[in-house]
Design brief:
331 residues, alpha/beta, TIM Barrel, binds S-adenosylmethionine, binds 6-(5-methyl-2-OXO-imidazolidin-4-yl)-hexanoic acid, binds iron/sulfur cluster
Length: 331
Amino acid sequence: MTSLRHNWTNKEINAIYQQPLLDLIYQAATIHRENKNYAEVQISSLISIKTGGCKEDCSYCPQAARYHTNIETQSLMSLDNVLDKAQKAKAAGASRVCMGAAWREVRDNRDFDRIIEMVKAVNNLDIEVCATLGMLTENQAQRLADAGLYAYNHNLDTSEENYKNIITTRTYDDRLQTINHARKANLTVCSGGIIGLGETIGDRISMLKILSNMEIHPESVPINALVPVKGTPLENQPKVSVWDMVRMIATTRILMPQTVVRLSAGRTEMSVTDQAFCFMAGANSIFAGDKLLTTPNPSLSEDMEMFAILGLKPREAFKINKVVPNNINQY
Ligand code: SAM
Ligand code: DTB
Ligand code: SF4
């Protein structure tokens, strides 16, 4: 196993990211094989438990109320409905269910009590339960942990410098604080970003530096390609090049060898060949099912066909170790 580092510099990350593509893929694939069974891919399934009508101004997001996108808003889903979807996801091979709510933050109200019940019920299915509900206090994180939540997703999305160009209704520090609250409650952390927002390579590197220098690396890092949605300020962004996705995934794999790297949004625009490069570069998780939160995703049968072609298989639940920092002095 590769020792973990928490002292990466911008210069080092830049050198990794910018090296010739095939060298980068080879380096990442080597580290991947030293640390993971590269043939096992973890499947997560998203359930949008509360859709649209969000107060925030995240310029990529179809669920922000202010942007007049074409999505169907929906108030908090019933427990039975969530449970039914989670059971179907498990039967289809998912080892993790991620419940997403279009909220700025969690409030201590009846809706949160209902989510606590959902976490308990889905946890009883013996599947990893993840939630992404916006900002959390430490106490709220603890309630979720006590209910059996396994992971909390809270993406940094981009660099600190670029953040204010993308979102103005909260700060980067707010984001980091919620991640700390999840950590303090002993939840595993899922945090990554989006490429294709108009960021520079320097922004991508700065974001990866923050994630990879956390005292404990996030146990999972989703790498999303922007899904440009009509009505959002980023609707006309050019399509992300697959090679940028590959570079991002490979660099993430090299910096955080034991983390689950998730090839997340954007797969409908990618061929099997494109995705094969991402798996080769160290991706070992996907979101499966026809829909992400509000936008389309490849169908399960297409994904199973892809797994068969590439010799991949879905991984069972609860197989990741929490990633504990090594003695960083050895570097
Ligand atoms: N409201 C909560 C929050 O912002 O943390 C949870 C849900 S939010 C939709 C979760 C993540 O989805 C965002 O942080 C962003 O990374 C991703 N996302 C949203 N819209 C996207 C898009 N159009 N393309 C790619 N990723 C997107
Ligand atoms: C993550 O990094 N990507 C997922 C999940 N975590 C919550 C969400 C992608 C959303 C894409 C746009 C949509 O479907 O609304
Ligand atoms: Fe709201 Fe989350 Fe979308 Fe931002 S990303 S608008 S916080 S749902």
